[in-house]
């Protein structure tokens, strides 16, 4: 892998290069107790504002860890040995005053809190940790470090997981072309992650031969920094950064839900939009992405097998906290006349509104696929291209305007013959 550029967020070069992610806090944690450390780690891994820089299981070594890695936050769980931990806080706050110390303890004893604050701690949280309290403390540290967040800067990242109701339904086509449509806007930085670990073909659709794949990044995630990450991705001429599936089948098992979560967490800090193309196996890796996503596009067609799968999938999603509410149903190949079920019937069956319809355009889609050129380059005037562009606008929270709106209107006409109301 390439060499590191600058690894510290305060390094000038680093900031210029990754301006967009300057509000990420790098954190090092020390806790001799594996159970609580793991629990806190898994909470932190889901937070896009946090990059877990280092972890340590001995109070004695933590000063050195902080000196070497220069984190913004040192999280110290003090319960294993309060005196050692308090001494550590004193020494870290003297030797690394830039590092804000956040103390976590099972005790809420006022005396202990006072001692920790006197030793130099900036925040004190009691176990079991609540996400909101942790976020509150991190937010205060972030504010002290970076000032109030500037509203003109992009805040957070939108993660769009694209899943499908059966193989060949158009998941990858939607993911790839949506990513390209989003990347057309200069303010956006867009990455496409292929999580169809065995059979993914996002790289083929973009006609790229990537140097690194998800397995390289996943295996190195604990020592990856932003510059290394960006150089591990392949930049397509559309502006989309691609992270493809592993080349070798045997590498698939090296990719765990936990490291996918970390990779996506790091990427969230680096890109304004992450599009994740899922497999149809709904594996723990796919589920990790669904949980992390801000929106889930469920691509389906209007036939019986697809809708039956949709019903089953939605039932399972309901068991996963927050997942079902993020689902947006996208009907692909609308207008295809092979025993299609009406939209109304489909909505009733799935129990969700149809969020979007993409027209059937076999000829264009096959060209796009065979040439490895995205829709916006290969067929900029096609109805399907306009429809994807409008979908991208709507997902970015925009009102449809100008040419995009007229494209959408054209689509409206295109769909006016579809049996959207009543029976077919
Ligand atoms: N709107 C569409 N109209 C016609 N063909 C389509 C459309 N969307 C996708 N296809 C075609 O369907 C096939 C499967 O698409 P793909 O995106 O690979 O599906 P998946 O990722 O769900 O397996 C491809 O040949 C693709 O060109
Ligand atoms: Mg696919």
> What is the second-level CATH architecture of the largest domain?
3-Layer(aba) Sandwich
Structural class: alpha/beta
The unique ligands bound to this protein are: adenosine-5'-diphosphate, magnesium ion
Helix percent band? 40-55%
The helix tally amounts to 18
The largest sheet is: 8 strands, mixed
- Per CATH, the class of the largest domain reads Alpha Beta
Span of the ends, CA to CA: 57 Å
What does this molecule look like?
By secondary structure, this protein is of the alpha/beta class. The protein folds into two domains: 131 residues, Rossmann fold (3-Layer(aba) Sandwich), CATH 3.40.50; 257 residues, Rossmann fold, CATH 3.40.50.300. It contains 18 helices and 13 strands. It has an eight-stranded mixed β-sheet with strand order 8-9-7-10-6-11-12-13, sandwiched between helices. A five-stranded parallel β-sheet has the order 2-1-3-4-5, with helices on both faces. β1, α2 and β2 form a beta-alpha-beta unit. The N terminus and C terminus are likely disordered. The structure holds adenosine-5'-diphosphate (ADP) and magnesium ion. Adenosine-5'-diphosphate binds next to α7, β12 and α15. The site of adenosine-5'-diphosphate (ADP) has 18 residues, from α7, β12 and α15.
List strands and helices in order, with pairings.
Elements: H1 12-17, E1 25-30, H2 34-45, E2 50-56, H3 59-69, E3 73-77, H4 82-95, E4 100-105, H5 110-119, E5 123-126, H6 131-146, E6 158-164, H7 171-183, E7 190-194, H8 202-205, H9 214-219, H10 226-232, E8 234-235, E9 241-243, H11 257-270, E10 273-277, H12 284-292, E11 295-300, H13 304-318, E12 327-334, H14 343-350, E13 354-359, H15 362-371, H16 375-378, H17 383-395, H18 402-416
Parallel strand pairs: 1-2, 1-3, 3-4, 4-5, 6-10, 6-11, 7-9, 7-10, 11-12, 12-13
Antiparallel strand pairs: 8-9
Helix pairs in contact: 3-4, 4-5, 7-17, 11-12, 17-18
The chain binds adenosine-5'-diphosphate and magnesium ion.
Residues 171-172, 196, 201 line the site of magnesium ion.
């Amino acid at each position: 892998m390439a060499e590191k550029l600058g690894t510290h967020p305060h390094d000038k070069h680093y900031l210029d290069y990754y301006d967009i992610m300057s509000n990420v806090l790098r954190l090092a944690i020390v806790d001799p107790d594996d159970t609580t450390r793991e629990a806190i780690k898994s909470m932190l891994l889901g937070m896009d504002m946090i990059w877990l820089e280092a972890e340590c299981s001995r109070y004695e070594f933590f000063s050195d860890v902080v000196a070497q890695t220069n984190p913004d936050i040192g999280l110290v769980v003090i319960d294993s040995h309060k005196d050692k931990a308090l001494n550590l806080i004193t020494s870290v706050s003297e030797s690394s005053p830039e590092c804000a110390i956040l103390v976590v303890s099972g005790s809420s004893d006022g005396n202990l809190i006072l001692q920790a604050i006197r030793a130099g701690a900036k925040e004190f949280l009691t176990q079991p940790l609540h996400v909101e309290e942790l976020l509150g403390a991190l937010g205060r540290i972030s504010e002290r470090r970076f000032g109030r967040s500037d509203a003109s800067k992009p805040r957070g990242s939108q993660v769009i997981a694209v899943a499908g109701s059966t193989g060949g339904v158009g998941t990858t086509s939607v993911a790839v072309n949506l990513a390209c449509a989003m990347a057309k806007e200069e303010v956006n930085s867009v990455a496409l992650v292929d999580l169809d670990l065995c059979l993914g073909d996002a790289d083929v659709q973009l006609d790229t031969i990537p140097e690194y794949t998800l397995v390289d990044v996943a295996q190195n995630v604990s020592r990856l920094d932003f510059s290394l990450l960006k150089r591990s991705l392949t930049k397509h001429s559309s502006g989309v950064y691609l992270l493809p599936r592993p080349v070798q089948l045997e590498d698939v098992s090296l990719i765990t839900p936990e490291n996918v979560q970390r990779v996506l967490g790091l990427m969230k800090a680096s890109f304004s939009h992450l599009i994740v193309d899922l497999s149809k196996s709904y594996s723990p890796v796919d589920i990790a992405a669904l949980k992390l996503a801000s929106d889930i596009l469920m691509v389906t067609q209007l036939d019986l097998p697809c809708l039956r799968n949709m019903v089953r999938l939605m039932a399972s999603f309901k068991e996963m906290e927050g997942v079902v509410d993020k689902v947006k149903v996208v009907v692909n190949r609308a207008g295809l006349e092979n025993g299609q079920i009406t939209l109304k019937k489909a909505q009733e069956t799935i129990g969700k509104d149809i969020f979007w319809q993409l027209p059937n355009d076999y000829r264009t889609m096959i060209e796009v696929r065979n040439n490895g050129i995205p829709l916006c380059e290969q067929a900029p005037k096609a109805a399907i291209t306009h429809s994807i562009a409008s979908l991208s606008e709507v997902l970015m929270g925009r009102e449809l305007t100008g040419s995009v709106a007229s494209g959408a209107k054209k689509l409206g006409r295109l769909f006016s013959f579809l049996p959207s109301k009543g029976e077919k």
